[in-house]
Write a structure and sequence with these properties.
This protein has three domains: about 100 residues, 3-Layer(aba) Sandwich (Cobalt-precorrin-4 Transmethylase, domain 1); about 100 residues, 2-Layer Sandwich (Methyltransferase, Cobalt-precorrin-4 Transmethylase, Domain 2), CATH 3.30.950; about 180 residues, Vaccinia Virus protein VP39 (Rossmann fold, 3-Layer(aba) Sandwich). It is about 30% helix and about 25% strand. It has 13 helices and 19 strands. The longest helix has 13 residues. It is elongated and about 85 Å long.
Length: about 400
């Protein structure tokens, strides 16, 4: 197979090309690209091949192609483009054009080496909130579904109104339009499908440390206290040994406090939570919005619904509602390699049952008994007020054993 040239092209078509690139295109025998890119060359004399039906099919065709091939791509093919995938499968020479992000920042007159870049082009917005929270400058590649309008609605649902927004439409093309917007206004404005969104922080935003204070969470009233307390929460989340891209299950999430702490660590991962009590579930959703964690939360009693979650890297079990045996069996079976399960138990009976279940499923355990007291004023003096003791059980799969 001959080396294939991949050429990046802008929205102004041939005008964006160096003369040598245009020459290569017309000298080729097979021109590959999206319908929009191919339309820039109505006078092309060779065979054209629109990219449709998936990239694997295209690779299969090109791996045996004998003709001289040029592939057209939008902007920089290696910047959230088809170049990354195709270059891993084919012998490519890549000649990029400016990316839409570069052009957008040039129109803004601002540097972009310190920008955080996200793409919701052809992928869901799920998890975007925790990935960008705290970032001062964010560039987002969009598509017709995840439009600036939808992005504005999404950000406002998490209270992320500290941003002003620059939208660049049809950048470099005949119908280019650029401008600054407020998130509230963006929800009702029509934008071209070809656009890029830049968020710039212009107002202070809330921030929270690891170990969010208990009173910060929405909780069930008047029976407050159904929350994994801050000190136990910090120990439990630490025992999960989360990575930035971990997939986490929170079983019996209640207020969502552990899911939230996990989501603010595993920002590029996925958080899944289940809760049987509707009132607690509503508090959980309010807390997720407040603390800017975009988790998937379902109403149900574990182990029901767990089959719909992707296999986890970490599992926190705050409550089992009498179904511990089945819950642990499924969690042990589904846990990814090198993952951890952390279970909080209040009674010695639950501790004993959990230890036996983990052993039966081929897991080793460590147990921490957390006996925590907090200072409390009494007249002009101070005393300590004890929290309920908690057994924090951390389990991982034994070497060379499976569930």
């Amino acid at each position: 197979m001959k080396s294939i040239k991949m050429i990046g092209i802008g929205d102004d078509g041939k005008k964006s090309l160096l003369p040598i690139y245009e020459g290569w295109i017309y000298e080729s025998e097979l021109l590959v690209g999206g319908h929009r890119q191919l339309a820039y060359f109505p006078d092309y004399q060779g065979e054209t091949l629109p990219i449709e039906g998936g990239l694997p099919r295209l690779v299969e065709r090109l791996q045996t192609e004998k003709k001289k091939v040029v592939i057209l791509a939008s902007g920089d093919p290696l910047f959230f483009g088809i170049g990354s995938y195709l270059s891993s499968k084919l012998d490519l020479e890549i000649y990029p054009y400016l990316s839409s992000i570069q052009i957008a920042f040039a129109k803004m007159g601002e540097r972009w080496q310190d920008a955080h870049v996200e793409s919701v082009h052809g992928r869901p917005m799920k998890g975007l909130a925790q990935r960008i929270d705290g970032k001062s400058k964010v560039a987002i590649l969009t598509d017709a579904e995840n439009s600036p309008n939808k992005i504005a609605e999404y950000l406002l649902s998490f209270g992320m109104d500290e941003y002003e927004v620059f939208v660049g439409e049809n950048l470099g093309g005949e119908h280019e339009r650029v401008g600054w917007y407020q998130l509230q206004d963006m929800r009702t404005i029509d934008f071209s499908p070809l656009n890029v969104v830049i968020l710039k922080k212009v107002n202070p935003a809330p921030s929270w440390p690891i170990g969010i204070e208990d009173h910060e969470f929405f909780q069930r009233k008047p029976d407050k206290g159904l929350i994994t307390k801050k000190e136990v929460r910090v120990l439990s989340v630490s025992a999960l040994q989360l990575k930035i891209d971990s997939v986490v299950w929170d079983i019996g999430t209640c207020t969502g406090s552990v899911a939230i702490e996990a989501g603010r660590i595993a920002r590029e991962g996925q958080i899944f939570a289940i809760e049987k009590n509707e009132e607690d579930l509503e508090n959980c959703k309010q807390n997720l919005s407040k603390f800017r964690v975009d988790a998937t939360v379902v109403h149900g009693k574990a182990p029901d619904q767990l089959e719909h979650f992707p296999s986890p890297d970490a599992v926190f079990i705050g409550g089992t509602a009498g179904g511990m045996k089945d819950i642990l069996r499924i969690c042990c079976h589904r846990l990814n390699q090198n993952g951890h399960i952390v279970l909080n138990a209040v009674t010695i009976e639950n501790l004993a049952e959990a230890m036996a279940s983990f052993k039966k499923n081929g897991f080793t355990t460590e147990v921490t008994l957390a006996q925590i007291s907090r200072s409390k004023p009494i007249l002009n003096l101070t005393r300590f007020d004890a929290l309920n003791p908690i057994y924090i059980i951390t389990a991982k799969r034994e070497e060379e054993q499976t569930c």
